Amino acid sequence: MTRTEKEKMLAGELYNAGAPELQAEMAITYKWLARYNAALGASASDLRGLLPERLAAVGEGAMIRPPFHCDYGFNISLGAGVFLNFNCVILDVVEVTIGDRTQIGPGVQILTADHPRDAAKRGSGLEFGRPIRIGRNVWIGGGAIILPGVTIGDNALIGAGLARSGLKNEAAKVVTALFDASLFFELHRLPELFCGFARRAGEGPTSYPVACAPQAWAAGAAFLLLQACLGLRVLGLERKLVFSRPVLPEFLEQVTIRNLRIGEACVDLSLTRDKEDVRVDVLRKQGDLKIVVSNKDLAVGSSRARAARQS
Q: What is the mean pLDDT of residues 106-114?
């Protein structure tokens, strides 16, 4: 028996997103989204009343602040007390489950849609999805991007999103906790996950038996979080390197970055804790490149950066 493109999509198989059946479903969702987003000024109870019209499940007290955007809606399940702030996007070609009391900041993207790595298959217009599962009591800061197939455990904090929300010190605490955990793993190799029990003095994390170690994205998480704490952005077209209100985790007094390349330019940098500030020193610079340290968003959090230095 031949399956429809919708059935293939829901099964996580390659499917044609342009199939008439799926386009019709999307058109229904877009009409619902137009009504929902137009109700920005409505009461919380009225907004909650609209959600079950299109979403798969809506727990008691769940709330999405418009504007909100999704593909279909019928693959999204919200637990009790879930809160999504303004401008969240969920590409729900397959299941997206968000657990009870999870808080999601503005501008977060939850993306189940994926594409073939093979160029010929990708060029044919076929795509597929991988489910995203977010546990209970999770905090995802504004601007975070959750990629296809990701599972987030109960009580987790998404550090890069916290930093984008101005909560650099909170993100730095996540980095410090990961460093502390790494002391109990061979060669400081962080596994893809470990059990989320409360800390016990002198003891390491409880291992998760089937977790991969080393794991590429687990190893890369430390660098992503450090970049988030430093507020480091590379503006290639402008030939500019920006540090926005940088913060160092408590276990780090100094960080050296060598041979950072932007186009044909190259720079060595040193970042050093200086009381409540972080000092950025240029050790070496070759080529046309500006290094900017900004104190933007000083109103959020307690850390300060040396203001408006440029070299």
A: 96
pLDDT per position as a tens digit, 192-245: 888 878 888 888 888 888 888 877 777 788 888 888 899 898 988 899 999 988
Q: Measure the CA–CA gap between 149 and 154, rounded to whole angstroms.
A: 16
Residue 167, pLDDT above cutoff 70:
yes
Query: Cα(188)–Cα(49) distance, rounded to whole angstroms?
Result: 49
The CATH number fitting domain 5-155, selected from 2.160.10.10, 2.30.40.10, 2.170.120.30, 3.40.50.80: 2.160.10.10
Give the whole-angstrom CA distance, residue 30 versus residue 69.
9
Instruction: Kindly list the catalytic residues.
Output: 115
Banded pLDDT at 297 (limits 50, 70, 90): very low
Question: Which residues, including other chains, have CB under 8 Å from residue 295's CB and lie 6 or more apart?
Answer: 245, 304, 305, 306, 307, 308
